[in-house]
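From the pipeline queue, job 12 of 40. The input is one protein chain; the requested action is below.

Action: predict structure.
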Amino acid sequence: MGMHQQMNIVKLVLIVSFGMMLAGCQEEFFEITEPDTTTTFFADDTISDLILKVTLKDGSFDNIIDQCSETSIDFPYMVKVRNEIIQIDSGEDIEMLAQQHLQVRKNLRINFPVTVTFSDYTTSVLNNRGELQQIQNRYRHRLKDDDIECIDFVYPVAISLYDTQYQKQESKWAGSDKEMHGIVKGKKEVIIEIGYPVVLEKADGITIEVTNNAELENAIIQSMGTCDENDEVEFDDEDHFGNA
């Protein structure tokens, strides 16, 4: 028997034992049904990894400015193009900047300090160009980020957490990618259950409804590579943006 099969058996035993334990020992506190294995999963399961990648923050929309899909600069901030100071308050401002100043990208400078948000929603304050370049260099070996952008959850999504260590149940509503990512990420010794049905929206606007883990996993996998994620980043020295 392989290690993967042994782990699956251990997980199944945990789920069954957890349901029996709650039914026998905790009946006086609340009534709970045994988790359904078609709708539950652990943090290290494949479906958990796929959900986390779908809900990562996409940092590619401002690549013309920070040249890094792993990060996005928090609004508002200012950039300098030649002698013109431009305030960036939205994605629309970035699109306008790209259209009007595409030919002078090497003359575009960020007015530091700025706060950047990483794909996992952690943040960092950057005080100068060098600190931004350190992040760029860290992700220079790959131009594509890890997020899956061709399909999205339609919120809200109901999530139940069964703590196998402390024998507790908690129900949550995820109303955004950030909330969904935070609920699923790093939940050790916790059984995660999704409240199906769940609606997903593809990049072309088509929505689909899934009713269990297998259908959700299949929908995410089939969506991968079906749209342009705009992760292209140029790292030539002459195109680097400097500090205003």
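Job complete. The two ends are 61 Å apart (CA to CA).
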